[in-house]
Amino acid sequence: MRTFKMGGIHPQEYKLSAGIKIQDADLPRQAVIPLGHYLGIPSNAVIAKGDTIKVGQLIGQAGGHVSANVHSSVSGIVNRIEGAFDASGYKVPSVFIDVEGDEWLESIDRTREVKRECTLTPAGIIKKITESGIVGLGGATFPTHVKLTPPPGKKAEVLIVNGVECEPYLTCDHQLMLEKGEEILVGVTILMKAIDVNRAVIGIENNKKDAIALMQRLAKTFEGIQVVPLQVQYPQGGEKQLVDAILGRQVPSGALPIEVGAVVQNVATAFAVYEAVQKNKPLFERVITITGKSMAHHGNYRARIGTPLISVVEQAGGIPEDTGKIVAGGPMMGRALSNLDIAVAKGTSGVLFIPTVESARKQMQNCIRCTKCVVVCPMGLEPYLLMTQSERSMWKEMENERIMDCIECGCCSFTCPSNRPLLDYLRLGKTTVNKIIRNRHARK
Predict the structure, then answer these.
(1) What b/e readout covers 205-219, taking b as 16+ CB neighbours within 10 angstroms?
(2) Which of 119, 132, 210, 399 is the most buried (most CB within 10 A)?
(3) Residue 303 in domain
(4) pLDDT of 335-366, one tens digit each?
(5) 16-25, pLDDT tens digit by residue?
């Protein structure tokens, strides 16, 4: 069975919410909708305090090419526009809306009928995706329209669709495939048309046999789409790892999948594309997983962007008493949260509650040069060396050692017998080096 060739691990999965149907999260009393994303330039507010807003209305205009429009997920009155903390711990410009009812723009098609035929041209599809504020929903939130417009001289040969969901605990993509498989496939055909390819491959790890069977059956009625089971191996959801697993092609250091003829999109992104193009529905809600070994009710929730996480968690039974750490996302790549007052964003995949017994870090020991971190690194890096360089602020050396290739998967920390916080130091180094590179380019 296919998988990527370099590195990787197989942590315990704990897919506790697998098979639990998606339910709608309750509407909040006040939505806090971020105008910024994890990647790209924040959007600019096009509304003001006191304005009356409807669901689906544009409230933030993209601030540049690598940016995305933002739409209201609720109806009500704009209370204020100011900074609010996000999962990264930084304040981002946000729109606070006091919720009144649930009035949607009339232009949004809310019927359940699946519309398969897309009459838009490739340019029209990309324009619609741009207007709808769609970003990658697999984690990085890179604006989708940018991926669909390769640089001059580059041509896509195949669309790869990521249905891997290799993070332990998370099940939102899995359940979305089970419930919205046909819509996802229509979205895939729309993306194929947008980039002018006649072949698409959907990769799904073999621990989701029900999703594989369903998507393979549905794909028989769609030309050019293949569903491929993949060996369970983390971090197979990484773009370069998925390209390797499906095509056997290696994306060069510092390059993107388009260098080897591939464009990669997440299954949830494909569904969002379907809703935008076929239903005229901007991206203002997404499915998230609320889970943890001690949760009263594990679940997959369709939550409006801007809903405070605490609101969804209370709907799932509240914070478990034995919680030692709260993580936004999965345990491998997620980020610890100090509280649940932050809002659901486009990049929010879930909330994980880790018991105190499991959350405490073990005492760090000296590196024993076992090279386990090197063996499991899917990018061929030397994490032990990069950590040392980060500790010593050796930023130039870190850049030379390809720190920017790090995908922050956490395989190195997971496998280290000396309990060294490798990922923490690699993230610090990567962030610092990235700032240095940007400043260097800005001076040119």
Answers:
(1) bebbeebbebbbebb
(2) 132
(3) yes
(4) 999 899 999 999 999 999 999 999 999 999 99
(5) 999 999 999 9
